[in-house]
Amino acid sequence: xxxxxxxxxxxxxxxxxxxxxxxxxxxxxxxxxxxxxxxxxxxxxxxxxxxxxxxxxxxxxxxxxxxxxxxxxxxxxxxxxxxxxxxxxxxxxxxxxxxxxxxxxxxxxxxxxxxxxxxxxxxxxxxxxxxxxxxxxxxxxxxxxxxxxxxxxxxxxxxxxxxxxxxxxxxxxxxxxxxxxxxxxxxxxxxxxxxxxxxxxxxxxxxxxx
Length: 210
Prior knowledge:
Number of helices: 6
């Protein structure tokens, strides 16, 4: 078989593989529903530092705050109503934080606010919450320089985040291990196809020169 024919066949195979990967990506994307940044209320807690003790404090406050807010919005179906309820209870959230810090014997500063806060992309089942600005309760503990924790307060999805573990910002860790793996696999497959194609072409031309 002539080298040009082999090259043509290999190129056709390469195009088919690339097309198949693209169609697979589209099929996976079609299974996920993207949620507008205006359709959710979120929670973000910034720990004082990455020290084990500061991270433990963050989790204690997370549990108490989430438990309280969940009771306020469980029977609410309207976003604006949920927003009003949470805003009205900001002083109570401040009290919860103060009580928890006192229980832990800490004289640490803190700040609680309800405003627009930047969040990275997050996947909950088949729901994709894209990166962007969300209405959120922001709790800053001490200097707020430690790993932060976030979740969706409305609709209530914080329990899913607690089950999945800690969350960190996109510029510090792109995602959880389970979310990273598919992307890595796609990259490895793509490089494998390219390397295979280049290797075969090199062999063909080498044999032709001999």
